[in-house]
């Protein structure tokens, strides 16, 4: 199972899942922090060494954007604070080639932009953090659910939760939709295939009191829910099997 988000809702015996790609970039915190520090110092040195009217300070956007690669939520505000401090210091030491008033206005406006961008990055980090927590919680729900959950794309099975694996025995290879269909009674084959086709058109299919476990010689009675979901940005079919007790 790839690193994607699963929002899962349990309602009247079925689970509806939607996946969102929120991959966090690969990060090496020490290298990134070091690089941010080096860029901040280089921009500061460049700004303090060039005329007041040369907008070298606009390069402070670079280290701020790089905080996207750090998991610490408040890193954008730290980098913004350092950048603003450097901008203020360089204002007093840069060679004069223009009106100090206009230079101050330009730098003040840029500092405001830095704060706005830092707030947007911080908001995005909070969203990603929340989604990661939600993923862990709902993944735990799926893994511990007594309902068997199978995700199918095309004719191939992409995911089976532990309860689903408990439905099969021996060295069975539940890698295709046919395997799961043939666990039911032959009388139900066409009904289930028809349900899968309708689910691909957007319908939510519920089938009750089906004979299940024929291949495994269990002869159980099951309810089946079939629903179209999104898996890895691709349309997929979700089968929910509940064994009646």
Automatic annotation (TrEMBL):
Keywords: Membrane, Transmembrane, Transmembrane helix. It comes from the Archaea. The keyword Membrane applies. The chain crosses the membrane at residues 77-95, 101-122. This is PAS domain-containing protein.
């Amino acid at each position: 199972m790839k690193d994607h988000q699963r929002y899962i809702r349990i309602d009247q015996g079925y689970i509806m899942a939607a996946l969102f790609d929120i991959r966090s970039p690969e990060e090496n915190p020490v290298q990134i922090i070091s690089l941010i520090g080096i860029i901040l110092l280089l921009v500061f040195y460049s700004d303090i060494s060039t005329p007041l009217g040369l907008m070298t300070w606009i390069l402070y956007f670079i280290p701020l954007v790089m905080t996207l690669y750090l998991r610490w939520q408040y890193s954008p505000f730290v980098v913004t604070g350092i950048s603003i401090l450097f901008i203020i210091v360089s204002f007093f030491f840069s060679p004069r080639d223009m009106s100090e008033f206009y230079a101050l206005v330009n730098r003040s406006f840029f500092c405001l932009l830095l704060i706005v961008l830092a707030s947007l990055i911080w908001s995005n980090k909070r969203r990603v953090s929340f989604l990661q927590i939600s993923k862990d919680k709902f993944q735990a729900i799926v893994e511990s659910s007594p309902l068997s959950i199978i995700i199918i794309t095309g004719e191939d099975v992409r995911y089976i939760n532990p309860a689903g694996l408990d439905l099969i025995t021996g060295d069975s290879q539940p890698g295709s939709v046919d395997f799961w269909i043939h666990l039911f009674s032959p009388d139900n084959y066409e009904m289930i295939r028809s349900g899968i086709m309708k689910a691909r058109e957007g319908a939510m299919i519920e089938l009750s009191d089906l004979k299940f476990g024929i291949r495994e010689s269990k002869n159980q009675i099951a309810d089946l829910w079939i629903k179209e979901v999104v898996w890895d940005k691709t349309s997929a079919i979700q089968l929910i099997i509940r064994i009646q007790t």
